[in-house]
Amino acid sequence: MQKILIAEDDINISADLKMRLQEEGFITDVVYNGLLAEKLIIRNSYDCIILDINMPGKDGLAVCKTVREQGISTSILILTAFDEVEDKVTGFNSGADDYLTKPFYFQELLARIKSLLKRRPITTEVSQVLTIENLSIDLRSKKVQRNGETLKLTSREYEILVLLASSKGDIVSKRDFIEHIWGTRVEVNTNTIEVFINSIRNKIDKNFEPKLIHTRPGYGYFISGKPNES
Question: What global pTM score does this model have?
Answer without folding.
Answer: 0.56
